[in-house]
TrEMBL record:
Domain of life: Bacteria
Protein name stated in the entry: Glutathione S-transferase
Organism of provenance: Pseudomonas arcuscaelestis
SUPFAM superfamilies the UniProt entry points to: GST C-terminal domain-like (SSF47616), Thioredoxin-like (SSF52833)
CDD domains registered for this protein in UniProt: GST_C_3
UniProt cross-references to InterPro entries, sorted A to Z: Glutathione-S-Trfase_C_sf, Glutathione_S-Trfase, Glutathione_S-Trfase_N, Thioredoxin-like_sf
GST N-terminal domain segment(s): 3-83
Pfam families per record: GST_C_2, GST_N_2
């Protein structure tokens, strides 16, 4: 299987991080092309790969797949033995539900706390709608752990697509120094100790130094 992942800056592109983590979970080898965002030629370069002009994009034998959730589902189908979703039916349903909620919601948090791996500063004031998002995310993580049938520190015990989708949120909560309960802080630390995430983080921070 030949995969080619087109991404944005690792320092800033949370959606790209999700797709990359999904590929790592699948155990897939892939070629990577990074297109710097917010540059005069960004749209032109992206249009060379897809009419969406957005990242991430996955080029594969079945065409070009846009959108991190579509990429994740495709990889789960193509690599069934990698168990990208939990194996238990109920847990898998909850994992899909959590990812869909992440994919289509939490706009206040995303808008007020842009993804930036290098940040280390709290918001001066946390808007009410942002705090509502944070509280819901913490509750959602607890719901995932309750639904899990496997032991381990990730949302469903072992690493899954749910963790790939919530890794950028874990980054936001840490880099903006959000106050969260102990179990949520422990999960954030789990993400930061995940080798697949650490590799992305290292590369992202190197972009800033470069």
């Amino acid at each position: 299987m030949n995969y080619h992942l087109i991404i944005g800056d690792k320092l800033y592109s949370s959606w790209s991080l999700r797709a990359a983590l999904a590929l790592e979970l699948a155990g897939a080898t892939y070629e990577e092309t990074l297109i710097k965002l917010n540059q005069p030629d960004t749209r032109t370069r992206l249009l060379e790969y897809s009419p969406t002009a957005k990242v991430p994009l996955l080029k594969c034998e079945h065409g070009i797949i846009a959108d991190s959730l579509a990429i994740a589902e495709y990889l789960a189908e193509r690599h069934p033995h990698a168990n990208l979703w939990p194996t238990d039916v109920a847990a898998r349903a909850q994992a899909r539900s959590a990812c869909a909620q992440m994919h289509s919601g939490f706009f206040a948090l995303r808008g007020n706390m842009p993804f930036d791996l290098s940040r280390d500063e709290a918001l001066e004031n946390v808007p009410l709608d942002v705090q509502v998002d944070i509280d819901r995310i913490v509750a959602l993580w607890s719901e995932c752990r309750l639904a899990s049938k496997e032991s381990g520190p990730f949302l469903f015990g072992q690493p899954s697509l749910a963790d790939a989708f919530f890794a950028p949120i874990a980054v936001r909560l840490r880099t903006y120094r959000a106050e969260v309960p102990a179990d949520a802080a422990s999960y954030i630390e789990t993400i930061y100790q995940w080798p697949a995430f650490q590799a992305w983080q290292k590369a992202g921070l190197a972009e800033r130094e470069g």
